[in-house]
Amino acid sequence: MSQIKAFFSRVWDGINSRISRPQVKREHILLYLSLVLLVLGALLVRIYPIFSTDMLLKGLDPWVQWRSAEYIYEHGLREFLNWYDHSSWYPFGKPMGKTLYVVIPLTGVICYKIALFLGFKTSLYAVTYFVPAIFGAATIVVIYKLGDIIHSKRTGIFAAFFLALANGFLSRTVVGFYDNECVGIFLMFLCFYFFIRGLTKDSVLSSVLAGICLGGLSLTWGAFRYAYDLLALYAILMILLKKYSRRLLQSFSITILLGLALGTLIPRNGVQFIFSTEQLIPVVVIVGMLGITLYQELQKNIEAEKLKRIVRYSILGVIGAGIIGVIVLYSLNRISPIAAKFIRTIIPTLKESIPLIESVAENLTSSWANLFFNIYIMVFLLPLGFYFCIKKPNEKTVFLLLLGLTGVYFGASMVRLALIVTPAAAVVAGYTLDEVLRPFALINQERFTMSRRKRRAVKQIGKELISVAYVFVAVTLLLTVIFGANMLQRQYYRNHELTPLLRSSQGDFVAHDYQQTFDYIRTNIAPYSIGEKPPLVMSWWDYGYQLSTLGNVTTLVDNATINSTQIGIVGAMLIHNESASLKLMEKFGVNYVLILSPGVINNQGNDIYKSQWMMKICETEATPYLHEYALKADDYFNEDTSVPEEYGFRPKFWQSVVYKLSAYWLNSDGVYGDPGSQNQVSNWRGGLLSQAPDINSINSHFKLIFQSSFAILRLYEITY
Question: For domain 513-718, is the CATH number 3.40.50.1100?
Answer without folding.
Answer: no
